[in-house]
Design goal:
Elements: H1 2-38, E1 39-40, E2 43-44, H2 47-54, H3 56-89, H4 95-106, H5 110-121, H6 126-133, H7 144-168, H8 172-180, H9 185-196, H10 198-214, H11 217-222, H12 229-238, H13 245-271, H14 290-318, E3 320-323, E4 326-331, H15 334-341, H16 344-375, H17 379-388, H18 396-406, H19 418-442, H20 446-454, H21 459-487, H22 491-496, H23 504-513, H24 517-542
Antiparallel strand pairs: 1-2, 3-4
Helix pairs in contact: 1-13, 1-16, 1-17, 1-18, 2-3, 3-7, 3-10, 3-14, 4-7, 4-14, 5-7, 5-14, 7-10, 10-13, 12-13, 13-18, 14-24, 15-24, 16-17, 16-19, 16-21, 16-23, 18-19, 19-21, 20-21, 21-24, 23-24
Length: 549
């Protein structure tokens, strides 16, 4: 009896330890953020909120961000769902290559795509110049529709990843039954397939909405006066006209409330589609010939080609001959030589250290949370899971500001260190791996673990030797998305970094704002190489056809 009690206490201790970490590094900073928003000069005041709602420029930025996020979400779904449908139901030529290229479209910071589109379709862009030479006025990449275009081309692959998993779970017998009742083609797609995958569609829509809403880099580069929420927060905290921490904290609180409202709306909508499906007879992709097959191939490859164009152009620009920021004919390695003088190795080493340490912590914590929620579910453990998901609805700048407010003074001074950047990224990117690990854990039958225990294995040995390996696919899938989002993170890092902790993404942004576009292309290219290596290792290690969610 004493042995059993000690083993039970081990997981109780894990629960308490995780809750303590969440309280220190998430709840405590958020409480301080709230306190900063209503306390000024030692007195309680709502003046910051009155200022925000009293001027249309400020509350208009919320509306602008919501409008952008809604349009980006709608366009991403319109692009991603047909792409995934054709990919899952049709034997497309070069199917695996197509999916890898699709993933590469999203595996870079959104602002890098914005920077590339400026080089292509800005006032002096390559495509703009070509169109002008033949008398055609090109599409302006600046402003509202430019932001929507750039973000949609960057985020639609996330919809593809989610929908591929949903289409895999549809049983072919359901398709045959619908067809036997006269429900075919487009009618079957909307009445059967869309209904069966609606929970996944809503989940993908929420992810895209949150990513778009929290994006700082794209609006700041091509917004041209179109104010958005993340840019407003940054300008109030680190603006050229001075810092107003009190007002920045108030705006951050409003940002959390807005995203929380969107999250609740999505949860309510999802609750109306509560059901489970399991594919005993998975759908097999079929040959698609004739005009229909050609159009499907054209849609998929053209979409990927347009989305990948900015990254290919950035790689090209990294080898162009720039002298004192002036583009000259020919190619050279001068940009790489200049980058070496501008913290290239420091940026690379910091990026790798931060990303690998962050990912290791995320994986360990996510696995523990998944086990506690699924196998030892109670109010306390479910509270841990809920709290750990809070960053899912928080812009990166909000997390950065809350950490600075809480850990900028002794004895807890962490600002200016790699540690605070790691903490921020663990907090912000935990939900990706946590959700995947929990989903994988729920698919493992309890009987397998009971069989291991009945054969004499201890609970810890069963957990490490049986449960964790069986969760590996879900853990790795979430870890891939987390790792990519970690190395391309900018919004929180831009608030937290200094010259000693600068990363590749921040170096890219600094080079763009400094006008050294060739050097910026070098930093962006190296970031892209890292993401490609990550993807190749994942596909090689798992031998998977794609990323499973």
């Amino acid at each position: 009896m004493n042995v059993k009690r000690k083993k039970a206490d081990l997981w109780t201790g894990v629960s308490i330890f995780l809750m303590i970490l969440l309280v220190i590094f998430l709840i405590y900073p958020l409480v301080n953020l709230l306190r900063q928003s209503v306390i000024k000069d030692g007195k309680f005041t709502l003046s910051a909120f009155q200022t925000f709602f009293g001027q249309s420029y400020y509350w208009g930025s919320v509306i602008n961000s919501v409008k952008i996020a809604v349009c980006v979400t709608a366009l991403s779904l319109l692009l991603g769902i047909p792409f995934s449908y054709f990919y899952s139901f049709t034997k497309l030529k070069g199917r695996k290559l197509l999916f890898i290229l699709c993933l590469l479209c999203t595996m870079s910071a959104p602002f890098i795509g914005a920077y590339a589109w400026i080089l292509l379709m800005g006032n002096s862009g390559l495509i703009t110049g070509v169109l002008k030479s033949i008398g055609i006025k090109g599409f302006s990449i600046y402003g509202f529709w430019g932001i929507v275009l750039v973000q949609s081309l960057k985020l639609f692959p996330l919809v593809v990843i989610y929908m591929n998993g949903a289409f895999r779970d549809i049983d072919n017998s359901l398709m045959e039954a619908a067809e036997s009742m006269g429900c075919k083609g487009i009618k079957r797609f909307f009445r059967v397939i869309m209904s069966l995958t609606m929970p996944t569609i809503l989940a993908a829509a929420l992810l895209v909405f949150m990513r778009s809403f929290a994006d700082f880099g794209t609006p700041v580069l091509i917004g041209r006066g179109y104010s958005t929420f993340p840019v407003l927060i940054y300008n109030q905290y680190l603006g050229e006209n001075g810092s107003d921490y009190h007002f920045a904290a108030a705006i951050s609180v409003i940002a959390v409330l807005v995203t929380a409202a969107i999250f609740i709306i999505q949860k309510v909508a999802t609750s109306k589609f509560k059901f489970t499906i399991n594919a005993l007879h998975p759908i097999e992709p079929k040959e698609s010939k004739g005009v229909s097959g050609v159009l499907k191939h054209v849609f998929c490859y053209l979409l990927v080609g347009i989305s990948l164009l900015p990254q290919l152009y950035i790689v090209n620009m990294s080898f162009r001959n720039y002298t004192n920021s002036i583009l000259k004919p020919g190619y050279s390695l001068i940009n790489y030589q200049t980058a070496l003088e501008k913290n290239l190795f420091t940026s690379m080493s910091n990026t790798l250290i931060i990303s690998f340490v962050t990912l290791a912590v995320i994986i360990v914590v996510a696995v523990l949370i998944a086990y506690l929620v699924v196998r030892r579910g109670n109010l306390f453990n479910n509270s841990i899971d809920t709290i750990s998901m809070l960053p899912y609805i928080m812009p990166g700048g909000v997390i950065g500001i809350s950490l600075i407010i809480s850990f900028s003074k002794k004895p807890y001074a962490l600002t200016g260190t790699l540690m605070i950047m790691i903490i921020a990224l663990v907090i912000r990117r935990m939900p990706f791996t946590s959700r995947s690990a929990t989903a994988a854990m729920m698919k493992i039958p309890m009987s397998i673990e009971e069989a291991s225990l009945s054969l004499g294995a201890s609970k810890s040995k069963t957990f490490l030797g049986i449960t964790v390996p069986m969760m590996s696919s879900g853990i790795i899938s979430g870890a891939v998305l987390s790792w990519v989002s970690i190395i391309t993170e900018m919004s929180s890092g831009l608030i937290l970094y200094n010259n000693r902790t600068i990363t590749l993404t921040i170096s890219t942004y600094a080079a763009i704002t400094g006008g050294t576009y060739g050097v910026a292309a070098v930093f962006a290219t190296i970031t892209l190489v890292f993401t490609i290596i990550c993807l190749v290792v994942y596909l090689k290690f798992t031998k998977a056809e794609d990323i499973k969610m």
